[in-house]
Predict the structure.
Amino acid sequence: MKFFVDTADVAAIAELNDLGMVDGVTTNPSLILKSGRDIIEVTKEICSIVSGPVSAEVVALTADEMIAEGRKLAAIAPNIAVKVPLTWDGLKTCKVLSGEGFMVNVTLCFSTNQALLAAKAGATFISPFVGRLDDINLDGMELIADIRQVYDNYDFETQILAASIRSANHASQCALIGADVMTAPPSVIKAMANHILTDKGLDQFMKDWAKTGQKII
Ligand code: E4P
């Protein structure tokens, strides 16, 4: 499973990238707001750090305007994936931009039918939002499994980019189901390293080591 980092925080991206943990990046208007930076500038900087796909989201609502915005975002760097919402106009935009050879990430997906439409419109990535479905007491992970089955049934090439990943548990479940990609905030990727028995075991080793009175260096 590929790891995309869900942030526009350049320092956090660079730290994880140095560890080989970054296959791509996703941003959205809320994350751009959080960064406090200009969308074009910050996206350009991210693309200079990460060689994999970097999603930059359009903010227009009509297809013509989304297409124009998408072309401008795609001109930032060759590894831009234009992110469009899963609306009818977003699907039209997806068809046009993917036909022009750009990567397209169709976002705000909450159903299998929406994922089917995105695949037929030529999406490179479909972004089903796990956490936001869990937030309303639906099963976000069930949607990832259902889309996996539907895409496999018909050999769709659109990659399942599990989004709105809020916990390390979400990450492992996505990997078990076979999501192609998951995008998670840096804090969740770091939390994947944690285990209470690792902490407990290390604590015991440190105590026993101190009792030996030895040093390695
Ligand atoms: C990424 O593509 C999505 O915009 C993001 O994962 C949404 O996450 P959230 O539901 O935690 O805001």
Summary: The two ends are 38 Å apart (CA to CA). The beta strands are 2-6, 24-26, 54-57, 80-85, 103-109, 125-128, 159-162, 181-184.
